[in-house]
Every structure is written in C-alpha cells, then in structure tokens.
C-alpha cells in the first residue's frame, strides 16, 4: 500500500500517513474551516474508519470536526446542562444563545463574575406579588387605622380629618383603573389620573401627588410594586407652583364685635385665637390648665401642637384682660365641642356680630398684626408655631404698625364679668 492514502467523499478528502521511525502511529490529516487538523491511531483500520467518517461530515457541511476532543466533551456537557434546564423550567435555550448572553453580561460586568452580580441583585430585589389596586388601597387604609386611635390622655398619630381626605383621594385613584394590578401600573396610568384632576386647584393636585407617592412607597414595602418602578418620575407627578391664596384678616373693630357678641368659653376661644394666634385644632385641644400653668403665657404641649413641638405663646395685656374673668376655671377643656360643631357655632356668632367670616381669619389677623408690630419674622414664627420663611412670605407688608397697635389694644369695656361665664363654660 502506498502512503499517503487519500480518502474522498464528494469534494472532501482526508489523507492517512504511515507511521515513521520516530512516530509509530497512523495519522489522519484534513482541513476544516481553513485550518489543518490531525488525529492519530494505532492501526490502519481505525484510521481509515475515522477518515471516512470525517470526509462524509465535511461533505455534509458539518463543522463538528473543527472541535478538539476536549472541546467536543465541553460542548456535549453544555448541551446536557441546557437540556436539564429545559426539563426543570420548560424554557429552551440554545447553546449559542446561552453563550452569547453570558459573553454580553460578562462584558458589562467588567471583570466581576456573573454569579456575584446575580447574588447582589437577588439581595436587593424582592419578588412582586400581584394585587388589585382597589384591594391594595383598602389594605393600606386598614393598616393605617390604628394610627387614628388615641391612647388614654394622648393624641392620635394622624387625625380623622387627614385620613378622611387622604382615603377619598386613594379610592378615587383606584376607581380610575378597575381590575388593574399595582405591579401593572405605568407612568401613563399616573399621567391619566393626574390629568383627570383639571377641575381642582394646583394646591389640591399637589395634595393628590403626595398621597399617591405615600401609597406607592407602601406598596413597595408590601412587595406589590418593584423598588425600581419609577412611577414618581411621570411627567404629571412634578409639583406645580400653587398660587398663594389671599390673606384675609379682621379689623380691630371686627375683633371687638366678635368678642362682645361671644358668650361663655366661646369668648375665651375667640380671644386666644385672635390675640395669641392658635390654630382652631389647637384651640379645641386646649385645657384651662394650659392657660394658667405658665404665668403670662399659654402652653401648647407637643401633644396639642400641630407640629408636635411644645411652644409658649406670650399673653399680651389685652388677652390677659379678656381671660381674667375665667381665672376660677382651673381644669377642663376650653371647649367640649367637636370641630364640626365649633364651626357651626362660629357661623352663628359671626352672623350675630355682623362680621363677614374669613377663612382662618383670627390666626391670619394675629400673624399679620404681630409681624407688623415687631418686624421680626422669627419672633412671630415662634409665637405662631410656624417657620420664619412662611411668616415672611405670607404676612409681610399686610398691616401697619399703627393698625397692629390698635389690634392688640382691644380690651373688654363695660362688660359685666358675669356675662363672661354665661352658657357653655366648663365647671371646675
């Protein structure tokens, strides 16, 4: 037999070389993908059998012959792993797809292992549960309900008025997207809802935005929404510049008319509201002990202050004069009525006094005149329980010092002390 022996199949061929003095094996040589390959065998028959197989595969277009023995083993093992993954998950991935995705991920990780990246991802991302928006809203409301209940002698964490308006907003949000899961919400959903609030003022729309943000934060904690949702980045979620409402306040004559028309503890409430600037909710939480505990001052404890920060409000001489007939009342609340009932009583009083009612008028009057009197926003802010920036931005330049002096000079005249204690005054 003359070597090398050429084995052909169609256009493909391989050559078998005889053993040499220094190499006692038969060699099968062939070219695949432009590269020369060689395999060795102990007998000619084995070499011939393999050469015939190789040329048939090359003629059929197969590139498997380009793999070395170790590469072939790796490829077969990889295919077995992919088949096992398919059986356990039902997802089929090709070897090329798996390798391509891995290479792309490894390039982005810049030297970090894919396993480490996956572990860190799983440590920070929770599995999202499907939850209907309406159901989630009711669960949120129910979860917050304990915060509306006050313990004995303490104030609730959140007020009924606040939760009432917040719950209305959230239920309106849920009703806009019936049969929709929280995790399916998109920026388009948020935009659609905010755009539906065109009839409201910019300030009210901002309140809606704050409520939605609060709800979305809660749904993330409950795993109803992924932490990476970005719904707050929707175009319509940007706060609007709300026009500041006009500050309306009373004249000294109107304050006198209200005080002289008021009876019982209502007179004390009006006097403190106008001459000490307490908020309505703070007034209704006030006890007589808070009035007399610190001489010359009204004490608003952290549990009764809107900001939950204690403050002392100085009594001006006029306020002391209006409160002096109540000196015998050491305990009990200034007013045992609810805020709704108080507002109704106020309407009757303003009508009786012939004074046009102004929203938050007593507090606005105090802040306007106190700032005009002292020209010190920090001092007025400390008295009113507000920020200096708020005082400066809302009350600067509204009144003159002369008007302020007349306001804080409104004292009782020709009123019998007995009339101070008529009807509605708590007993000791």
Polypeptide structure, described:
This protein has 428 residues and is of the alpha+beta class. The protein folds into 4 domains: 5-66; 71-113; 133-237, DNA polymerase, domain 1, CATH 1.10.150; 252-420, Intergrase catalytic core (hpI Integrase, Chain A, Orthogonal Bundle). The protein has helices at residues 44-59, 69-89, 95-109, 114-124, 133-144, 160-176, 187-195, 202-221, 252-261, 265-276, 280-285, 288-292, 317-323, 339-353, 361-374, 377-384, 388-395, 401-407, 417-420; strands spanning 5-9, 12-17, 26-32, 35-41, 297-300, 311-314. Strands 1-2-3-4 form a 4-stranded antiparallel beta sheet, with helices on one face. β2 (12-17) and β3 form a beta hairpin. α9 (252-261) crosses α14 and α10 runs antiparallel to α13.
Topology, please?
Layout lengths: L4 E5 L2 E6 L8 E7 L2 E7 L2 H16 L9 H21 L5 H15 L4 H11 L8 H12 L15 H17 L10 H9 L6 H20 L30 H10 L3 H12 L3 H6 L2 H5 L4 E4 L10 E4 L2 H7 L15 H15 L7 H14 L2 H8 L3 H8 L5 H7 L9 H4 L8
Antiparallel strand pairs: 1-2, 2-3, 3-4, 5-6
Helix pairs in contact: 5-6, 6-8, 9-10, 9-14, 10-13, 10-15, 15-16, 15-18, 16-17
CATH architecture group name of the largest domain: Orthogonal Bundle
Sheet/helix structural class? alpha+beta
Largest sheet: 4 strands, antiparallel
The number of distinct structural domains comes to: 4
Question: Which CATH class of the largest domain is shown?
Answer: Mainly Alpha
Number of helices: 19
CATH 4th-level superfamily of the largest domain: Intergrase catalytic core
User: Whole-Å distance between the termini?
Assistant: 131 Å
Taking all residues together, what is the mean pLDDT?
A: 87
- CATH fold label of the largest domain: hpI Integrase, Chain A
Outline = rod-shaped
Write out the strand line-up for the largest beta sheet, numbering strands in chain order.
1-2-3-4
Q: Uncertain spans, ≥5 residues at pLDDT below 50?
A: 418-428
Q: Roughly what fraction of the amino acids lie in strands? A: 5-15%
Task: Please provide the ordered H/E string of secondary-structure elements.
Answer: EEEEHHHHHHHHHHHHEEHHHHHHH
Report the helical percentage: 40-55%
- Topology, number of strands: 6
Gyration radius, in Å: 42 Å
């Amino acid at each position: 037999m003359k070597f090398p022996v050429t084995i052909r199949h169609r256009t493909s061929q391989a050559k078998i070389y005889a053993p040499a003095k220094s190499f006692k094996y038969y060699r099968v040589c062939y070219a695949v993908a432009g590269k020369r390959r060689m395999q060795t065998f102990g007998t000619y028959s084995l070499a011939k059998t393999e050469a015939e197989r190789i040329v048939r595969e090359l003629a059929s277009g197969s590139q498997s012959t380009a793999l070395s023995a170790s590469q072939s083993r790796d490829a077969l093992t990889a295919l077995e792993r992919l088949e096992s993954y398919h059986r356990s998950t039902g997802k089929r991935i090709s070897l090329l797809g798996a390798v391509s995705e891995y290479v792309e991920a490894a390039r982005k990780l810049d030297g970090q292992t894919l396993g480490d990246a996956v572990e860190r991802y799983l440590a920070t991302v929770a599995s999202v549960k499907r939850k209907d928006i309406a159901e989630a809203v009711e669960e949120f409301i129910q979860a917050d309900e304990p915060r509306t209940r006050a313990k004995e002698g303490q104030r609730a964490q959140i007020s009924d008025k606040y939760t009432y308006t917040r719950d209305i907003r959230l239920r309106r949000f849920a009703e806009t997207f019936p049969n929709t899961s929280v995790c399916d919400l998109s920026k388009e959903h948020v935009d659609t809802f905010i755009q539906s609030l065109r009839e409201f003022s910019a300030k009210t729309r901002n309140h809606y935005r704050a409520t939605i943000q609060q709800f979305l934060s809660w749904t993330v904690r409950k795993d109803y929404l992924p932490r990476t949702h970005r719904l707050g980045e929707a175009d319509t979620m940007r706060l609007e510049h709300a026009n500041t409402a006009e500050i309306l306040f009373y004249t000294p004559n109107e304050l006198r008319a209200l005080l002289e028309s008021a009876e019982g503890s209502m007179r004390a409430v009006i006097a403190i509201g106008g001459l000490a600037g307490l908020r309505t909710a703070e007034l209704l939480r006030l006890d007589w002990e808070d009035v007399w505990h610190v001489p010359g001052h009204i004490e608003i404890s952290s549990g009764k202050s809107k900001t939950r920060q204690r403050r002392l409000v100085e009594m001006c001489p006029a306020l002391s004069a209006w409160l002096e007939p109540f000196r015998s009342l050491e305990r009990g609340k200034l007013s045992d009525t609810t805020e709704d009932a108080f507002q109704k009583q106020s309407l009757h009083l303003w009508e009786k006094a012939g004074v046009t009612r102004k929203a938050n008028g007593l507090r606005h009057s105090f802040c306007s005149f106190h700032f005009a009197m002292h020209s010190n926003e920090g001092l007025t802010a400390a008295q009113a329980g507000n920020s200096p920036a708020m005082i400066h931005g809302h009350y600067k330049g509204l009144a003159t010092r002369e008007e302020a002096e007349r306001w804080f000079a409104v004292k009782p005249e020709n009123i019998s002390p007995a009339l101070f204690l008529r009807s509605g005054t708590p007993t000791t």
